[in-house]
Design the sequence.
């Protein structure tokens, strides 16, 4: 049989901090600004590589069977 707790009872800040730590664990270390890398936009990758032979050779290389 479950017991009802006092509805006026509140957790202290220390108890809430412990419950958060127990539930979520510790946060990872903060990433420093000097550890960030700058994104460099490049041209998109072609759909298929430059052909070294004719269209027939491409079809033979990329066929499933």
Sequence:
């Amino acid at each position: 049989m479950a017991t009802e707790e006092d509805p006026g009872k509140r957790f202290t800040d220390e108890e809430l901090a412990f419950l958060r730590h127990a539930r979520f664990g510790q946060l990872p270390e903060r990433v420093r600004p000097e550890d960030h890398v700058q994104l460099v936009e490049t041209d998109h990758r072609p759909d298929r590589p430059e052909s070294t032979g004719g269209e027939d050779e491409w079809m033979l290389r990329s066929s499933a069977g």
Summary: The chain has two helices and no strands. The two ends are 67 Å apart (CA to CA).
